[in-house]
Amino acid sequence: MQRNRGEIKVLGLNKDVVALSSYRQEWKELFSHEKALLESLIGEYVVDIQHIGSTAIEGIAAKPMLDILIGLRSMDDVKKFDKYKLKDADIYHLGRVEIEGKAVFAKFSDLEELTKTHVYHVVEYGGDWWKQHTLFRDYLNAHSDVAREYETLKKELAVKYPTNERNYADAKKKFVDEVLSLADCNIESGKNKKL
After folding, report:
1. Which of 137, 169, 182, 189 is the most buried (most CB within 10 A)?
2. pTM score of the predicted model
3. Which residues pair with 49 in a beta bridge?
């Protein structure tokens, strides 16, 4: 277990705990390190790796966990991942998490407490999941007012659901869907040059 890595000090939440941390510049650097590790472990199957989720949105509070989007040529390539190499890096496939078109992996700093530090969303590069995750991140980074609205919502929901990650995530869905709709409209009308 990698307990003495610097990332453990700034990352990690126990199972079902919802808590937010102020934005940290270190999250970008930790993503870069993790991307290099992933490229060494599964790089032959990967088209692109992106930092997503709230830790990738400049200046807003987030759960202290890195969300990482891994784009593959084909979802069949997930079966080719060397699970032993991933396990040696404390990365585990969350087989019980069943989402069509997506495989979810996570890194844990403590398996007894289930302290999760990273979530890996493995999807088809350029597919719907890829587009939704990157579009949401890019739109919020280009529109700080909308990012602040999202942060406010997240803070309210963290107070309302401090021990229920599923309810917290479900309660954000309407906002996320509205942002994706706005972002799609801006792309179609050519107004949003930053995306």
Report:
1. 137
2. 0.90
3. 70
Tens digits of residue pLDDT in 74-122? 999 999 999 999 999 999 999 999 999 999 999 999 999 999 999 999 9
Cβ neighbors of 20 (< 8 A, separation 6 or more) are 61, 62, 63, 154, 155, 158
Q: SS3 for the chain, per residue?
A: CCCCCCHHHHCCECCCCCCCECCCCHHHHHHHHHHHHHHHHHHHHEEEEEEECHHHCCCCCECCCEEEEEEECCHHHHHHCCHHHHHHCCEEECCCCCECCEEEEEEEEECCCCEEEEEEEEEECCCHHHHHHHHHHHHHHHCHHHHHHHHHHHHHHHHHCCCCHHHHHHHHHHHHHHHHHHHHHHHHHCCCCCC
Cα–Cα distance between 192 and 195 in angstroms, integer?
6
13, 19 in Cβ contact below 8 A? Answer: yes
When pLDDT is cut at 50, 70 and 90, the band that residue 188 belongs to is: low
Instruction: Give 185's strand partners.
Output: none
Q: C-alpha 68: how far from its chain's center?
A: 5
Query: Given a cut of 70, is residue 194 above it in pLDDT?
Result: no
